[in-house]
UniProtKB/TrEMBL annotation:
Residues 48-140 form the Methyltransferase type domain. This is Malonyl-[acyl-carrier protein] O-methyltransferase. Its EC number is 2.1.1.197. One of its GO terms (molecular function) is malonyl-CoA methyltransferase activity. Keywords: Biotin biosynthesis, Methyltransferase, S-adenosyl-L-methionine, Transferase. Gene3D superfamilies: Vaccinia Virus protein VP39. Converts the free carboxyl group of a malonyl-thioester to its methyl ester by transfer of a methyl group from S-adenosyl-L-methionine (SAM). It allows to synthesize pimeloyl-ACP via the fatty acid synthetic pathway. It is an enzyme of class 2 (transferase). The gene is bioC. InterPro entries: BioC (IPR011814), Methyltransf_11 (IPR013216), SAM-dependent_MTases_sf (IPR029063). It comes from the Bacteria. One of its GO terms (biological process) is methylation. Belongs to the methyltransferase superfamily.
């Protein structure tokens, strides 16, 4: 597992959001549904929902496939999912970098808006390749560079801290998924602009999604509050005539196949 990644922090961040998540997951719903047309029609498949969260899409996968496993690093997300989803689903608390599956044992891995949290994406991809059967599929969505540019540039006018995680570029993804072992056979890009009544509403939704996970910031307390005020003023540059604050999410969706040895 890559050393610079604080997985327990990510798990706690998502865990604290598990109850509010299903209400605030507007983006997740959209991107997860967008992946559905790529799902294979055969139903005798072993399927993993990687970073299953509250299990909204795991449930849909369970209505189509023979054996479905929801895997997440957050205990609380899994607890919520266990109590609210189809009883046939197997839930596993595990880290995507170390999948608890035998080599070549999985037909399909579905992953909606999880891999943007994995800085060491080539390590994750190698693990996905290890567990997929030859010809197996990885169907995923993620966020790419340019996401939340309004928020990033508003913060950039205030300080040099990192307030939003770094997202990979489309070229990064293409290089990682197009190799001797795998091919990205379909992909699409879409900008989703969500509307917020104010910047606090945006911050609340990011928190509700557990998406506020960034490296340690310098400023805390009053100095932090002051900077927040300044950032909110900067964000007004993006205010729409209707008085709505926009936030752009660049969603990349892909269908990767593991090539035969
Ligand atoms: C934005 S949520 C998406 C949840 C779900 N796929 C959906 O569409 O509603 C990302 C999920 O990935 C999980 N996650 C993040 N890093 C992980 C890792 N290394 N291994 C397993 N799960 C991880 C989080 O706990 C969280 O539940």
């Amino acid at each position: 597992m890559p050393e610079n990644i604080n997985l327990s922090k990510i798990a706690r961040s998502f865990g604290s959001a598990s109850e509010s998540y299903d209400i605030s997951a507007r983006l997740q719903r959209y991107s997860g549904k967008n992946l559905m047309p790529w799902l294979p029609n055969r139903n005798d498949l072993t399927v993993v929902d990687l970073g299953s969260g509250t299990g909204f899409f795991t449930d849909i996968l369970a209505s189509r496939y023979h054996q479905v496993i929801g895997l997440d690093i957050s205990t609380k997300m899994l607890e919520f999912a266990k109590h609210n989803r189809n009883e046939s689903i197997v839930w596993l608390e595990a880290d995507a970098y170390q999948l608890p599956f035998a080599n070549g044992s999985i037909d399909l891995i579905y992953s909606n808006l999880m891999i943007q949290w994995c800085e060491a994406l080539p390590v994750l991809k190698a693990e996905i390749i290890r567990v997929l059967k030859p010809g197996g599929l990885f169907i995923f969505s993620t966020l790419v560079d340019g996401t939340l540019f309004e928020l990033k540039s508003s913060w950039a006018q205030v300080d040099d801290d990192k307030h939003v995680i770094d997202f990979k570029t489309e070229q990064d993804l293409s290089a990682i998924f197009n190799t001797d072992e795998s091919k990205l056979i379909e992909f699409s890009n879409k900008d989703i602009v969500l509307e917020y009544e104010n910047v606090l509403h945006l911050a609340k939704e990011l928190k509700g999604l557990g998406a506020n996970q960034v490296p340690k910031k310098q400023s805390k307390g009053l100095a932090g509050k002051d900077k927040w005020q300044k950032m909110m003023v900067s964000y007004q540059d993006f205010l729409e005539p209707s008085g709505i604050y926009p936030a752009t999410y660049k969603v990349f969706s892909g269908l990767m196949v593991k090539l035969n040895d």
